[in-house]
Design a protein that fits this description.
By secondary structure, the chain is an alpha+beta fold. The protein has 18 helices and 24 strands. The protein has 4 domains: 8-203, Histidine kinase-like ATPase, C-terminal domain (Heat Shock Protein 90); 219-336, Ribosomal Protein S5, domain 2; 370-451 and 544-595, formyl-coa transferase, domain 3, CATH 3.30.1540; 456-533, MutL, C-terminal domain, regulatory subdomain (Ribosomal Protein S8, Chain: A, domain 1, 2-Layer Sandwich). The chain starts with 7 loop residues before the first helix and ends in a 5-residue tail after the last helix.
Length: 600
């Protein structure tokens, strides 16, 4: 085997393979350069999905002739000077690879002019070789045209998808850039058709509304800005119950750059906790600004992957931000739900007051009698024994003599639909409450509080077992021994790198106790310090309360309905059940008027 130095042309094509994957990659690199140049308006035009041509025009600072030629040399950049600058990167680009890589696999034309300059510069490149350099009279800023992408790499060109697919990737990339920089205007033209034309927005929410529609914007909660210790977090997240089956709208921007990071994704989910269904992903537009010295963006040429110096601190901060947003949303949600219903309006024909007619309230006997309550208490094995306190008795929530006219807020309970959905009227319109999901949430939070206060009942093992742990796991376990014991896990050191387990929670039916314990340690170690340490039993709690909560076809008296709504409003997360499904739905008067053709 003989080692040879690759020709410059081949080396450029190899480098291009890391930077230029498809037309969307070209658009990303060129738009980032425009943003770094201070552009306030960027136009992107493509033909045939970007295979035929890509043109990016900006009104940024532009370049003189020397810089226009130098930017086409590999590793030539204006963003950094020394290795120390890599620890303080605030620009989107910095590697000096994008333009020469793109020019090496396309027919490339660059026209640029500085503001105030008499003339600009035009540089034409084909396959990495400069063919022409001359003066140009274009407007101030920079214009780059990329034609016949991969024309000199036919094997690579075959890997491109259909024109529609490539165009969709370009559009997605532009959406990311426009969301990360709402103060910049964007125009996207595909095959001479204007896809969108967005002026600079006043803020992120306006840009979200322009791109995703007002319907989605109305379903978002603002993340209160949290700043301190070199980090600032703000943005918008979906309300509980608003989720997607993919991460397409789980977007994170770090110092203006769209990034992907599992620590951040985990933290967002941790912040939602039971407000998010398993298998679903939250709608997230999260903006993180932090000290560039605390993050490494020089991981991959695409610059989508990043590493953090202190990922644990970042996770804690993101979790706190998401939780605060959900808590703040709960206050507004509760206020809206409790708002008084509209007063009766005079009849259009007689002028007489309208007579209020509610759906009939069922007057059947209580849902659970005293004998059933006793049976339920016996079956409620998760709770520490408290015979004086009924646990899952739905009917015990209201006294027999309680007046039926008492309401849980200023809204009115109209009745029950389909023996499952409680109908209510408030100032905004109609509210439907799923009585089963609502009771699940109430029982879940009650049982979890008791477990946190009193611990989990444990069962002694006939034959204790030992488990080998790494030094890292052993250190973590020693610091969290009290928490594990409160969770019903009897654990103690048993020599160097060995632990003895002599009890497990009563509800655990583990075929492999050692693997079960390793899973518990891994789950708890990734949880936020502010999270409940009773995570171990939450899935079991959710399954148990599902069995004991009121069901469809279960009749509730009006006092029982009132108490159910009162208890729901007092929950920490009243808008969803422990599985993440919504407990209620608000249908506004505006929606009803549209359905009945009263409003366009």
């Amino acid at each position: 085997m003989v080692i040879r130095l690759l020709p410059e042309e081949v080396a450029s094509q190899v480098a291009a393979g890391e930077v230029v994957e498809r037309p969307a990659s070209v658009v990303k690199e060129l738009v980032e350069n425009s943003l770094d140049a201070g552009a306030k308006k960027i136009e992107v035009m493509i033909r045939r999905g970007g295979k035929s041509s890509i043109r990016v025009v900006d009104d940024g600072s532009g370049m003189d002739r020397d810089d226009a030629l130098l930017c086409l040399e590999r590793h030539a950049t204006s963003k950094i000077r020394t290795g120390l600058d890599l620890a303080a990167i605030l620009t989107l680009g910095f590697r000096g690879e994008a333009l020469p890589s793109i020019a090496s696999v396309s027919r490339f034309r660059l026209t640029t002019r500085m503001h105030g300059a008499v003339a600009g510069t035009e540089v034409v490149v084909a396959g990495g070789k400069i063919e022409r350099v001359r003066d140009a009279g274009d407007a101030p800023g920079t214009q780059i045209e990329v034609r016949s992408l991969f024309y000199n790499l036919p094997g690579r060109r075959k890997f491109l998808r259909t024109e529609a697919t490539e165009a969709s990737h370009v559009e997605h990339q532009l959406q990311l850039q426009s969301l990360g920089h709402p103060g910049t205007g964007f125009v996207f033209v595909n095959d001479e058709r204007v896809v969108y034309q967005m002026p600079p927005a006043a803020g992120l929410l306006d840009r979200i509304r322009d791109l995703c529609g007002s319907a989605l914007a109305a379903q978002l909660l603002e993340v209160p800005e949290l700043a301190g210790d070199g980090i600032s977090i703000r943005g918008f997240i979906g309300k509980p119950g608003v989720s997607r089956s993919t991460r397409a709208q789980e977007l994170v921007f770090l110092n203006g750059r769209a990034v992907e990071n599992k620590d951040i994704y985990f933290a967002v989910r941790e912040g939602y906790h039971t407000a998010l269904m398993k298998g679903q992903h939250p709608v997230t537009f999260l903006v993180i600004d932090m000290d560039p010295a605390a993050v490494d963006v020089n991981v991959h040429p695409s610059k989508r992957e990043v590493r953090f110096r202190d990922p644990a601190f970042l996770r804690e901060t993101v979790v706190e931000s998401v939780r605060k947003a959900i808590e703040a949303g709960r206050g507004g949600w509760s206020q809206t739900l409790r708002a008084s219903a509209k007063p009766p309006e005079p009849s259009a024909q007689s002028g007489a007051p309208r007579t209020e007619t509610a759906f009939p309230i069922e007057t059947t006997p209580p849902l659970i009698d005293e004998k059933e309550q006793t049976a339920l208490r016996r079956d409620w094995s998760l709770l520490p024994k408290q015979p004086e306190a009924p646990v899952a008795a739905a009917a015990a929530r209201a006294e027999p003599g309680e007046p039926a006219s008492k309401q849980p807020g200023n809204f009115k309970i109209l009745g029950v639909l389909g023996k499952l959905y409680i109908l209510m009227e408030n100032a905004s319109g109609l509210v439907l409450v799923d009585q089963h999901a609502a009771h699940e949430r109430i029982l879940f939070e009650e049982l979890r509080r008791r477990m946190e206060d009193q611990g989990v009942p444990a069962q002694r093992l006939l034959i204790p077992f030992t488990i080998q742990v790494t030094p890292r796991d052993g250190d973590w376990i020693s610091r969290n021994m009290a928490t594990l014991r409160k969770m019903g896990i009897g654990i103690e050191p048993f020599g160097t790198g060995t632990l003895k387990i002599d009890s497990l929670p009563q509800f655990v039916r583990a075929g492999d106790p050692q693997q079960f314990l390793r899973d518990v340690i891994e789950e708890l170690r990734g949880a936020s310090s502010q999270s409940s340490k009773m995570r171990l039993g939450e899935d079991v709690i959710a399954t148990t309360v599902c069995r004991h909560a009121v069901k469809a076809n279960d009749y509730l008296r009006e006092p029982e309905l009132v108490r159910l709504i009162q208890d729901l409003l007092n929950c920490e997360l009243p808008y969803c059940c422990p599985h993440g499904r919504p407990t209620l739905i608000q249908i506004s008067y505006a929606e009803l008027e549209k359905k009945f053709g009263r409003k366009a």
